[in-house]
Amino acid sequence: MIRPLIGARALLAAAALLPAILPSQTVSSTLKGIVHDSSGAAIAGASCRLANPSTSAVFTAATASDGSFQFLDILAGAYTLRVSAPGFKTYELAGVSIQSSEFHSAGVIVLEVGHAAESIVVREEGTPVQLSSGERSATITGNQLNDIAVKGRDFVSYLSTLPGIVDTNPNRDAMQRNALSGIHVNGGRDTQTVLLVDGVPIIDAGNNGASQEPNMDAIAEVRVLASNYQAEYGRNGGGT
């Protein structure tokens, strides 16, 4: 009689620990790319260094046998990517703007033959089409939050500036409890939309309303995932 009881207690204890070890939603991003030489052959073992001058964060990686590389769990920000290999000029890609929850592609990087002391500096330009994933998304930047005037202090007012989003709530004079009321993403109901702050849902499970709303002065950017986004954001059928 004792052994089953002990086993049951152990099982309950293990079950209680499961929520703590399950993977959660995140706002980190991924940067990937491929390194070739001028003939189109892959360069394996090339050294890749990704740095954020604003935060002094530095990430390093090496290219695989097919010349591919990737950086995981990167926070949003502006980065500089340096790629070097013996017998080739160092390649530097500046102004790599990475947004939250983004799969960012650096494309194909071509190294030219030369000394490592020589370098080629290129500045990244915005890509009009998302090539790294099939998601439909849009971002409201911190500059837009500062420069675009809205009535009141409700950051949700800015969502109507994004494609595919309709706001039918006329009472956005101040922050409110059910901030997502009236927000329709791609024709979905407002109760199908979920709000996350730094990757953590703040939706009241009782009424699917946002239990709180962050202050506009504390927001760096607002990213809206409209459709075809990753399974980790699958709590609701509407936008995230």
Folded structure, characterized:
By secondary structure, the chain is mainly beta. 11% of the residues lie in helices and 35% in strands. It contains two helices and 16 strands. The chain has a five-stranded mixed beta sheet, with no helix packed on it. The protein has a three-stranded mixed beta sheet with strand order 4-1-7, with no helix packed on it. Strands 9-16 form a two-stranded antiparallel sheet. A hairpin with a 5-residue loop joins β5 (77-84) and β6 (90-98). The longest helix has 20 residues, at 2-21. It is elongated. The model is unreliable at 1-24 (pLDDT under 50).
The total count of strands amounts to 16
Low-confidence stretches: 1-24
Radius of gyration: 23 Å
Number of helices: 2
Which structural class do the helices and strands define?
mainly beta
Name the shape in a single word. elongated
**What amount of the residues lies in strands?**
35-45%
Task: Classify the helix fraction into a percent range.
Answer: 10-25%
Describe the main β-sheet briefly.
5 strands, mixed
- Alpha carbon gap, first and last residue: 50 Å
Give the mean pLDDT: 77
What is the chain-wise order of helices and strands?
HEEEEEEEEEHEEEEEEE
Q: Strand order within the widest sheet?
A: 3-2-5-6-8
